[in-house]
Amino acid sequence: MTAVPDLRAVRSRMAEHPTIDLSRTNEATMRYTLLLAATLLAAQAVSAQTAREHVATGDSLHAAMDPAAALKHYEAALVADPKDYDALIKASRDAVDVGEFAGNKDTKTQMYRAGELYARRAVEVNPQGADGHFYLARALGRTAQSLGPRDRVKYAKDVRSHAMDALKIDPKHPGALHVMGMWNAEVMRLSGPTRWFAKNLLGGQIFGSANWDNATRYMEQAVAVEPNRISHHIDLAKIYLDTNNKARAREEFETVVRVPASDYNDRFYKADAEAQLKKL
Predict the structure, then answer these.
(1) Which fold has domain 52-126?
(2) Which range, 89-103, 147-161, 204-218, has the best average confidence (pLDDT)?
(3) Is 211 helix (H, G, I), strand (E, B) or coil?
């Protein structure tokens, strides 16, 4: 990102330059004035390189399935405007995308943490924005999935809270519906003792509300709202497997293989679906 010129430094260098005597001639003074004006205009042009332009570039790179490069532009947008809600939620989205299949554990943790921080700022900037709450729930959920069962449950309350906040604002938000489907499924996947620990020692009575019916219902709603989003289908397929509905699971895995990729991580979901189909 181009830096804005320091006008005081420019003036100082010009005044000290041995070939320019600002006191001698009107011509020299005029040249100095014109150069100073040109420098000021250049500075204004650079500073006017708006957050919107950086976001637009980031959007193009995201569409080209290059979230790491897109993230750099969203972050540049936030340098220009730290309260740009659109840049914040997209920075969170792409940070988590980069982290999800990162081979290095430290990179994964770093990206999830960045995604969480950007989403928290988005919620601060616009508490009534459903996307901010969703991306915060998503980032927290991804962090939780990378932890052990006992540590995972510590995140569960916040994940559910922000997903529900998003659904209060937009009852058909596909991302929030997905998070709630996964929340129910992940709680049900915990061992009995771990769920008991969560309910009784962490004060998590909400864990008692989790069930497979809710997991299925929320994820099916996410699919209905966004039928071409591969991530919905892959996670719904796994919920069907967990509930011993192999026929429906096969249908969803086949959909994952058939639907064109539209997100960076879809290639990984497709490979997973193909592997799962071989087991069925």
Answers:
(1) 1.25.40
(2) 89-103
(3) coil
